[in-house]
Design a protein that fits this description.
The chain is α+β, with helices and mostly antiparallel strands and 89 residues long. It has 3 helices and 4 strands; from the N terminus they run H-E-E-H-H-E-E.
Length: 89
Amino acid sequence: MPPVIPTRPALLAARVGDLLAWHLVVRCPCRGYPRSIPLADIAAEHGRRLTLGQVAARLRCARCGEPPQSVRASPGDPFASRAWKVILK
């Protein structure tokens, strides 16, 4: 049986601490290519109680300071060919 893909509203309301194996895949205007951020790293630095919606709203590029063009959530390896992703922004 295939995994149930969570909806965008459900993921935006989910707490980072509940999704430690997941990654955020962000694309910045100045870099042009996707970068992966493990949610376990975000939880370790900023706490497990933040929601994905709060994290997505606060993300900024370390180089240019701009918010990302896109934010996706992906379970496990975000660059695996069969990985599914949910667009958050």
